[in-house]
Amino acid sequence: MQYLYHAVPSDLKDNKLYPLNTLKEKHPGLFSLESSKYKGREDVAQQAIPLLDCLWGDVIFMTAVHPQILMEAYKKAGGKINRSAQFFQIDVELLQKENIAVAIYSGEGDEKIYESYDTDHIKEYSTIPDRTVEYFTEQLQQNNLPLYYAYIPHILYKGTIDTTDLPIVEVGP
After folding, report:
1. pTM surpassing 0.70?
2. What are the tens digits of pLDDT across the range 20-37?
3. Which segments within 76-165 are labelled E, that is strand?
4. What are the distances in angstroms from CA 161 to CA 12, 13, 15, 109, 166?
5. CA distance 93 to 3
């Protein structure tokens, strides 16, 4: 089985994960909170995802990297983690394949290459690039809070995800 992970929101509504732009209609208060993640980089949510014929704000973001591995990489770079976190563990077989894409950083700045999700590439999707750890280290040395998923392949899902029966993985310091 191949799993994808998404942080459990503290204010989950309807036992569903919604894309940002859907939250705007269904739960405007929650949209305001979630869209604050893009403060200073609002244009990101407007980037097109050609493969899915939608915008970044129209998809749910997941990672194939197990959250404990990501947490360990962050700590290795000098980051401090004071509390545990919970993540939904999503079996990729539960998702509609035609609605899944992967955004992979090309190595040129923040340029991304989009491709269809391919089960044969799971090792690539679930490995933390050296560039991510370097970024963590640089940001932490400058006393900046890094983006936790920088340069890691982003698994994008166009649709909503029912979380009712999803297992939860808890990772801690």
Report:
1. yes
2. 888 788 766 666 566 556
3. 85-91, 100-105, 112-116, 154-157, 161-162
4. 12, 12, 9, 31, 10
5. 9
